[in-house]
Amino acid sequence: MDLLTVFQILDSTIRLATPLLLACLAGLFSERAGVFDIGLEGKMLIAAFFSAAIAYTTGNVWLGLLAGVAASMVFALIHAIASITFRGDQLISGVAINFLAAGLTVLIAQDWFAQGGRTPSLSGDGRFEPITFPGADELRSGFRQARADDLEPSGLSALYWDVISGHTILVYVAILAVPLTWWILFRTRFGLRLRAVGENPGAVDTAGISVVRLRYAAVLICGLLTGLAGAYLATGFNAGFTKDMTAGRGFIALAALIFAKWRPFYALGACLLFGLLQAVEGRFQSIGLFGFEIPSQFMQALPYILTVVILAGFVGKAIPPRAGGAPYVKER
Amino acid sequence: MPKWADVLLVPLLNLVLALIVSGAVVAYIGENPFDAMRIMVNGAVGSAYGWGYTLFYATNFIFTGLAVAVAFHARLFNIGGEGQAALGGLGVAIVALALPWPHWSLALIACTVSAAAFGAAWAFLPAILQAKRGSHIVITTIMFNFIAAALLNYLLVGPLQGAGMSPETARFPEGAHLPTAYDMASWLGFNRSAPLNVAFLVALAACVAVWFLIWRTRLGYEIRAYGHSEPAAVYAGIDPVRITVIAMLISGGLAGMMAVNAVQGEAERLVLDPVQGAGFIGIAVALMGRSHPFGVLLAAILFGILYQGGAELEFETSVPREMVVVIQALVILFTGALDNMVRDPVGKAFLRFRRAADQSGPKAGTPAE
């Protein structure tokens, strides 16, 4: 495996990690405020569909992004109404949201485009184009020229022109969202209150702050971020919506969230790790390691297995926010 | 609120709300919702042909619904029915392919036991992790669903693959084939193609068995007590680890038994996705059925009607099959998550009604102030 292959794998790692990261940070906001969310998958899916559909019909990817985020936030609002206002079971609400998205996307896609539950392919302004950093093209052509001249270049420059440069804007947004999330949660008053409401809502209420309003805010931020994740899948990563295109990414994001112990920078690490697993699995059919042949299905299952191991608490215990999953009932 | 309102009126109102929203969706796609409803009901229960499919689907949902219901009684949310049923399919395939079975009844017993054992085994690890290490069972069972899918994927393109190129096992031997509704009751008009089979009777027996277990045995009492209040149960000498594990083993076993119907009864081989979402429908079924076996039976038949009706709907109109998924989602949303939206006003209405009745009853003769 030469350096160039390593960089190519890292490049696809970043692409694959982006939707996971956005969804993972989304779950972070919601769960830190005490609202469990297993509906990340559904919100990503509905956002993916509406961003692709609107980007196709208007020819403008930004309008598509807006529509995707709006759709995702509507679903987040349903989750909030069910689990905060009506104190319903947060897990059951999440399950319902996943199914609602799985059904509605195909239904509406078939009604609008009649292509068997998908949108037509996006092109031109209907997609997010890669952003090329200054000098990246020169370095790339320099590398190609050197290779053509049999100079055997090291390929180290690919770290810049392949791994760092050349992604769509949402990739950079996702990475910038990590420090931003950390800052909001750990350096602002809103963040302090949000974390408090996930640990001890009674105390927050006693201090005269609305638990309901804080939780609504957290769930809507979650909807915004899953919206970006879904829009990235349909308009950046792929060119258009296909049935069930999230393919369990919402659940991998959930796994990453637990793996990261509900912390933003750990979340970045966990998502990059799971992205790397997907990138490796996508590139090789099977991997020989220490004389054993590891089947690709094992690589697929690895994020889930790792999460169970972490949950079991044998390797660093993951402790969720204390008030997570419980609706808050104000004492009267 | 009287009991009949709790177990009948509120779920019914929830269902009506779900159907109204579904109807709106159908209307949006440009079909008449009442026509759609008529096509679905007609297609599902209007003929012996329809019943042959409706009850087949219902059989799957009875098993997965009971699985979720038993776990609910211990206040555990087993969302892993999908994976447990897939493993049940593996159990069925291994046993069915192991011997040239002389008679279907022997194969049925052996496959049922194996399916239940495999399903239960797949629930064991999440259960023990929940009981001993406090790992959230919802998350672990979700993870186990994905691990099960990867495992089946590996086995069906590897060690267990049949002669063909497709990812499935060889066809089960003749002796392991279960009698279908046509074999048993062709006089009722069942079609040769109807997948309904003898596993339906096993599902009915499972309903009775679960009812007996939950309300007539000591273990069932312990499960319910634990579900109502863990501290009270512990105080009464009930071991939470034991109850969690046993409830999950029973739940996983029931989910696994679904494979007797879907894998042994219909497909007669193990395919990549033998469960087809039935594990998740079990959640809706258990919620609608209020975790009571009879309620689960009724809800399972309702979802059977939806499934078969959905297929007919796709056949006759422009409404895709996914309409069923939307209805299912709305049923889960309204009966499960938005329950209080209906329950609170209904409860208040009953309270007001009773107060009004109290005032106009015994005090009727007193003069107005």
UniProtKB/TrEMBL annotation, chain A:
It holds the Pfam family BPD_transp_2. The keyword Cell membrane applies. GO terms for cellular component: plasma membrane. It comes from the Bacteria. It is a multi-pass membrane protein. This is Nucleoside ABC transporter membrane protein. It comes from Hasllibacter halocynthiae. One of its GO terms (molecular function) is transmembrane transporter activity. Its main location: membrane. The chain crosses the membrane at residues 12-30, 42-59, 91-113, 164-185, 216-239, 251-280, 301-319. It is found in: Cell membrane. Keywords: Cell membrane, Membrane, Transmembrane, Transmembrane helix. CDD domains: TM_PBP1_transp_TpRbsC_like (cd06580).
UniProtKB/TrEMBL annotation, chain B:
It is a multi-pass membrane protein. The keyword Repeat does not apply. Keywords: Cell membrane, Membrane, Transmembrane, Transmembrane helix. It holds the Pfam family BPD_transp_2. One of its GO terms (cellular component) is plasma membrane. Its main location: membrane. It is found in: Cell membrane. The chain crosses the membrane at residues 7-30, 50-72, 84-101, 107-125, 137-157, 194-214, 243-264. Coiled coil: none annotated. One of its GO terms (molecular function) is transmembrane transporter activity. InterPro entries: ABC_transp_permease. It comes from the Bacteria. This is Nucleoside ABC transporter membrane protein. It comes from Hasllibacter halocynthiae.
